[in-house]
Amino acid sequence: MLKIFRKSTTLLASKIESNPNPSEGEHYLFIEGNKVGFIAWLLKLLGLSDPSVKISIDDKLIKRIDGGKQYTVSPTSSIYGFGSGYSSNKMLLVSAILAVIGGLLTMKVIAIVLGLIVAAILFFLYTRSGALEMSIACYKDGHGANLRVKSGLTGKKLDKSDFENIFNSLRNVSQANSQFYK
C-alpha cells in the first residue's frame, strides 16, 4: 500500500509552495506542517515525538518525511489519479450571523455589544478555517491516500487560490511524468 499520504492525515500548514510549471530542479508542490490533534501536541510537548511532516513532489519523486526520520518515496510515473478540494467551516459564519441577530433581538445595549463581539470572533475564526484536501492514487497495489491541510489559528492562511495552484500542480506533474497520462 502506498503510504505517501496515510489515510486521513491532517496537517496544520506552516508552508505551502506550489508551482504548476517548475524549472529544472524545482518542486511542483512542497507542503510542510505538523500533525493535528491532542495526542500529537502532547507527545511534542513531552519531547517524545516530532509531529512535523514534509511532502514534496518533483518531476521524478513524491516524498514524505515524518519527523525528519521516516522517509517514504514513490515515483511520479506511478500516479494514475489525483484530486484536490477546498472548504471552510461555514457553521462559524452562520453562528456569527446568529450572534448578531440574537444580540439585536434582545434590544439591550450590553447584549448587542456582546453579540457583536462574539460575531467578530466567530467571523475571524471563519476566515482562518480554510482547509485543502488532496489525494494522489499511485499504481502500487491499487491503493492511494488522502491529505488534509488546515489553516488553523497558528498555521498559514489558506484560500481558494492555494487549491487552484495545488490542483494545477498535481495535474501538470501527472501529465508530464505519469505513465498513465501519456
Question: Compute the gyration radius: what is it?
Answer: 20 Å
Instruction: Name the helicity range.
Output: 25-40%
Mean pLDDT: 86
The SS-based structural class is alpha+beta
- Overall geometric form: elongated
Description:
The protein is α+β, with helices and mostly antiparallel strands and 182 residues long. It has two domains: 118 residues, no CATH class; 36 residues, no CATH class. Helix content is 34%, strand content 32%. It contains four helices and eight strands, in the order ββαββββααββα. An eight-stranded mixed β-sheet has the order 5-4-3-2-1-8-7-6. α2 packs antiparallel against α3. The protein is elongated and about 65 Å long. The two termini are 24 Å apart. The model has no long low-confidence stretch (mean pLDDT 86).
What can be said about this structure in brief?
The protein has helices at 38-45, 90-106, 109-127, 160-177; strands at 9-18, 29-35, 52-57, 61-66, 70-75, 79-87, 131-138, 144-150.
Topology:
Elements lengths: L8 E10 L10 E7 L2 H8 L6 E6 L3 E6 L3 E6 L3 E9 L2 H17 L2 H19 L3 E8 L5 E7 L9 H18 L5
Parallel strand pairs: 1-8
Antiparallel strand pairs: 1-2, 2-3, 3-4, 4-5, 6-7, 7-8
Helix pairs in contact: 2-3
Characteristic terms for this protein:
182 residues, 2 domains, 8 strands, 32% strand, elongated
